[in-house]
TrEMBL record:
Biological process annotations from GO: vacuolar transport
Organism placement in taxonomy: Eukaryota, Viridiplantae, Streptophyta, Embryophyta, Tracheophyta
Pfam families: Snf7
Protein name according to UniProt: SNF7 family protein
Organism name: Zea mays (Maize)
Superkingdom field: Eukaryota
Length: 253
């Protein structure tokens, strides 16, 4: 059961799973340095184990750890009580239905009242359990915010040591955002081409591209000169030029 970056194990958990816990505990001591493990003792007996989830030293056990352990224990007990009430509520409903079908209306009425009492107890237990879970969540959030604050302070000190200003960081972050945005545009443009299956799809894609280009670039219509009706073919023109060139006589100047 992970709580607030630690593992907690209550007395009842140890009693219910003693063989497993002893084996797990031996393995834990072999694999985890002692700096990452703390025992939480209340009333001169072992009630909890605090283990770091990261390779860092566990802070000394504080009053907050004791209070958190009490909250976790209370949460477990309430959850167990809620499970018992759920079972009794369900049994009372089934017995009420069975009694009603058998014609014993008095017993059916008694079981209905009993199920209502169990339902009210379930409601109160659920509300209290939700409040305790909310408190535990707030403690976890406060611890996370504390770590974030410490990380920010370390970052500020590092920037001061390296003479890096916030403006420079913002400029670099803006450049990174622009690069990421440009890459996303490229990826978005490549997606239609990657989804093509055959040549027909490729032709269709290029037809769309051609239509888009025609819409973007204004079409300029150039009127071709009207050719005379008696215009000679290219072969006839070449033959005529060759004949005329052969008739030319070059004379010395």
């Amino acid at each position: 059961m992970g709580k607030l970056g630690t593992f907690w194990a209550g007395n009842k958990t140890l009693l219910r799973h003693a063989p497993f816990f002893l084996v797990h505990y031996v393995i834990l001591l072999k694999q985890v340095p002692t700096s990452m493990l703390h025992f939480v003792q209340l009333d001169s007996c072992l009630q909890g184990v605090k283990v770091a989830l990261t390779a860092s030293q566990v802070p000394a056990v504080s009053k907050l750890d004791h209070d958190t352990l009490h909250l976790v224990w209370t949460e477990e007990k309430l959850q167990e009580q809620l499970d018992v009430l759920d079972r009794r509520w369900e049994i009372s409903r089934r017995r009420a239905l069975a009694s009603f079908k058998s014609g014993d209306k008095l017993a059916a009425y008694r079981y209905v009242r009993q199920s209502k009492l169990f339902s009210q107890s379930r409601s109160r237990c659920t509300q209290l359990l939700e409040r305790i879970e909310e408190v535990i969540s707030l403690i976890a959030s406060a611890e996370s915010n504390k770590k974030v604050y410490e990380a920010i302070q370390i970052g500020i000190l590092a920037m001061k040591d390296n003479t890096v200003s916030i403006d420079e960081v913002n400029i670099h972050m803006k450049e990174i955002d622009e690069l990421v945005a440009a890459q996303r545009e490229v990826d978005a443009a490549l997606v239609p081409l990657q989804s093509l299956d055959d040549e027909g799809d490729i032709d269709e894609e290029f037809s769309k591209l051609e239509a888009e280009l025609q819409d973007d670039v204004p079409h300029i219509h150039v009127q071709e000169p009207m050719a005379p009706s008696n215009e000679e073919s290219p072969d006839e023109v070449v033959e005529s030029l060759s004949h005329n060139m052969s008739r030319i006589r070059l004379e010395p100047i």
